[in-house]
């Protein structure tokens, strides 16, 4: 989000779990995660069959899609946004509001977190359901259809553990089991190794970055203002996620159809055209860039930040010029060398586990020794209590001010 001279932002940290979960819960989590991987790879669930989660979230692209938009199960139907990386996706905070203290002392409410680049899924649990039923993605007709395919899957017996016979007959319960399984899978250590060179550097290893990358880091922190939105410090997780998960309209080049982003579902005019700031972890592997895949390379992304307002003809029209952030980017005054240094720095954000996987031609990254298990980290995940937090009262949501008195007390 745009940061004026001294806006203050708080992130909500999960409360420590009241009691230690039981060994049975730990086992349940492990089982769900195993079956989650099977669901993730299963290309028989789509209608027609043929695509799985992995078709659009490819390991060698850090589980993003190297194509600007992804083709769905139905021939000729394409999505409209660039598929994001699933690395660190289970660490994205739930959609919520934070109060910001403006320069003039007034208080403002801003959205933060949420899944999909427009935050239209409040939680990961809500998010993983949608690709199944999206007509431009897996195109499953109904939860009943999904449940019947799941009951016939090779991993059905594992999916069934923990469900009674009656529950196994209930379509919603069977589908929900698969959603929980996907969430547990995405929380696995392979998706959050924190083994990029920037991690070593931030942990005190001065040799982990080259001289050029160190110069790039200075630009990232100061003249480029990148760290104002792509945080280098830890917030909701013990390690930095390189994002504040706030929303902004950067004025990226239009690809035709207008995409209203955040404002499309909050229905607040000033939020139209805004998208969530992504984590920059593994960004060197996830071209093309921005929510619509409109920019092909990292160097161009940085040239765009640096010179957007000086060369409008180079970038062309944007979807919603009226809400573009003019304060924090567009004319940064970076020299050619600074642009080169900053571009080089982005390589230091790549996890070595993914680089090794690519070098060896393997299909899945290996576990990095020392990455804590999901069970150990359970109170840090936004999904820690497996339920959606109450919708916050501000600002008017879908054009209506919510009734504060009906909301559960905030934690
Ligand atoms: C046809 C392509 C396609 C398939 C199949 C697909 N996805 Fe996605 N996925 C996308 C696109 C495109 C986005 C970004 C959409 C957006 O931001 O609105 C996305 C976003 C996501 C996100 C959100 C990440 C973030 O940064 O907010 C998650 C998590 C995710 N997908 C998981 C899955 C899972 C799990 C499956 C299988 C059940 C799946 N996807 C199947 C294309 C696909
Ligand atoms: C005002 C907040 C803000 C600042 C400052 C900022 N970014 Fe971003 N960044 C965003 C948002 C929001 C997006 C997503 C925009 C979209 O997709 O429409 C983004 C997207 C990106 C992407 C594309 C990632 C992807 O996977 O598509 C890169 C790379 C990036 N930023 C790098 C930088 C660098 C380098 C700087 C400093 C020169 C910087 N950002 C400064 C908010 C910011």
How confident is the prediction overall: mean pLDDT? 90
Summed up, the domain count is 2
CATH architecture of the largest domain: Orthogonal Bundle
Name of the level-1 CATH class of the largest domain: Mainly Alpha
Principal-axes shape call: globular
Largest sheet: 2 strands, antiparallel
Strand order of the largest sheet: 1-2
Q: What would you report as the Rg, rounded to the nearest angstrom?
A: 21 Å
Small-molecule components bound? heme C
Strand content: under 5%
Order of secondary-structure elements: HHEEHHHHHHHHEHEHHHH
The name CATH uses for the topology of the largest domain is Cytochrome Bc1 Complex, Chain D, domain 2
What's the end-to-end separation, in Å?
Answer: 24 Å
Number of strands: 4
Number of distinct helices? 15
The unreliable regions are 1-19, 402-411
- Structural category is mainly alpha
Subcellular location: Cell envelope
Protein name: Cytochrome c domain-containing protein
Keywords: Heme, Iron, Metal-binding, Oxidoreductase, Signal
Describe the structure.
The protein is mainly α. It has two domains: 23-105 and 123-192 and 366-390, Cytochrome c-like domain (Cytochrome Bc1 Complex, Chain D, domain 2, Orthogonal Bundle); 197-358, Cytochrome Bc1 Complex, Chain D, domain 2, CATH 1.10.760.10. 29% of the residues lie in helices and 4% in strands. It has 15 helices and four strands. The protein has helices spanning 23-41, 53-56, 124-127, 130-133, 143-152, 156-160, 165-168, 171-186, 197-202, 211-221, 263-266, 298-307, 312-315, 336-345, 352-359, and strands at 96-101, 107-112, 247-248, 275-276. The strands form two sheets. It has a two-stranded antiparallel sheet with strand order 1-2. Strands 3-4 form a two-stranded antiparallel sheet. Residues 1-19 and 402-411 have low confidence and may be disordered. The structure holds heme C (HEC) (2 copies). The site of one heme C (HEC) has 28 residues, from helix 12.
């Amino acid at each position: 989000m745009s940061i004026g001279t001294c806006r203050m932002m708080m992130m909500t940290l999960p409360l420590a779990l009241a009691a230690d979960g039981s060994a049975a819960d730990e086992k349940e989590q492990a089982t769900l995660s195993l079956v989650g991987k099977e669901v993730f790879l299963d290309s028989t669930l789509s209608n027609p069959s043929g695509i799985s989660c992995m078709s659009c979230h490819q390991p060698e692209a850090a589980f993003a899609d190297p194509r600007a938009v992804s083709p769905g199960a139905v021939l000729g139907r394409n999505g409209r946004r660039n598929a994001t990386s699933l690395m660190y996706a289970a660490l994205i905070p739930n959609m919520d509001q934070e109060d910001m203290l403006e320069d003039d002392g007034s208080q403002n409410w801003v959205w933060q977190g949420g899944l999909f680049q427009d935050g239209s899924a409040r939680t990961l649990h809500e998010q993983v359901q949608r690709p199944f039923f999206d007509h431009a993605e897996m195109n499953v007709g109904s939860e009943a259809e999904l449940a019947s395919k799941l009951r016939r899957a090779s991993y059905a017996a594992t999916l069934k553990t923990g469900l009674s016979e009656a529950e196994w007959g209930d379509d919603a319960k069977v589908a929900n089991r698969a959603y929980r399984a996907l969430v547990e899978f995405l929380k696995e250590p392979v998706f959050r190794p924190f083994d990029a060179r920037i991690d070593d550097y931030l942990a005190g290893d001065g040799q982990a970055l080259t001289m050029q990358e160190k110069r790039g880091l200075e630009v990232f922190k100061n003249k480029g203002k990148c760290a104002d939105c792509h945080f280098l410090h830890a917030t909701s997780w013990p390690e930095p996620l390189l994002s504040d998960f706030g929303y902004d309209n950067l004025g990226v080049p239009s690809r035709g159809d207008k995409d209203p982003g955040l404002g499309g579902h909050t229905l607040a005019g000033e939020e139209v055209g805004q998208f969530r700031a992504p984590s920059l972890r593994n960004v060197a592997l996830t071209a093309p860039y921005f929510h619509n895949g409109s920019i092909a390379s990292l160097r161009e992304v940085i040239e765009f930040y640096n010179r957007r307002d000086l060369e409008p003809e180079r970038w062309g029209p944007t979807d919603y010029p009226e809400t573009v952030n003019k304060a924090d980017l567009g004319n940064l005054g970076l020299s050619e060398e600074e642009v080169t240094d900053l571009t080089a720095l982005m390589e230091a954000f790549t996890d070595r586990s993914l680089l090794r996987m690519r070098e060896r031609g393997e299909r899945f990254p290996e576990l990095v020794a020392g990455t804590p298990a999901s069970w150990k980290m359970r109170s840090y995940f936004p999904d820690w209590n497996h339920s959606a937090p109450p919708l916050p009262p501000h600002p008017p949501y879908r054009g209506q001010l919510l009734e504060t008195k009906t909301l559960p007390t905030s934690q």
